[in-house]
Amino acid sequence: MTDNQDLIDLVRTIPDYPKPGIQFRDVSTLLLDGPAFRRTIDRMIALVDPDSFDVIAGIEARGFIVSAAMSYALEKGKVMLRKPGKLPGKAVSIDYALEYGSDRIEMHVDAIQPGQRVLLVDDLLATGGTAMAGVELLRGQGAIVSQALFIVDLPDLGGAQKLSAAGVKPLALMAFAGD
Fold it and tell me: Which domains does the chain have, with CATH numbers?
């Protein structure tokens, strides 16, 4: 088992972005390193039982990168949770609060079959607003969402606790305390 320090070292911190006081953990520097990105995906897959879910839902935008790679490796379908106006078919949506504003995500109404087990994936877990919106959106269409997977967790911001309180097990490769 690894402590993932090799991957942690590749995550860049950008102070005061997108507003003063925020320490933005930028995984784009990790994604630039092909072998490290492969290790990231392999290690994320090792955190879950592929038989425990039917499809993977990725949250736009960086969550698409991770979920697409996992979907490919595991030969699982991928559900796209998108920003407004990006889906061509009939969509359902949910508004949610972020630590620095508000947003909305959508998915096609026929993307999930009732009773399907969905693994929610994104790059980073902070306050949990985006992840909880994804959970609520998926569950609203009949999905069973019992776990969510992230590259980075910012535990001091409380997102993992929100997911746990909603019956969703949060998993992450790394955590940055104090953010």
Answer: 51-175 (3.40.50.2020)
Q: How many CA atoms lie within 13 A of 69 on its CB side?
A: 19
Asked if pLDDT for residue 101 goes beyond 80, the answer is no
Instruction: In whole angstroms, give the CA distance from residue 102 to residue 94.
Output: 11
Tell me if 156 sits within 8 A of 178, measured CB to CB. yes
pTM confidence score: 0.94
SS (H, E, C) 71-83: HHHHCCEEEEEEC
pLDDT over 50 (residue 1): no
Contacts of 17 (CB under 8 A, 6+ apart): 24
**Active-site residue list:** 62, 99
Q: Which burial class, exposed, middle or buried, applies to 88 when counting CB atoms under 10 A from its CB (0-12, 13-18, 19+)?
A: exposed
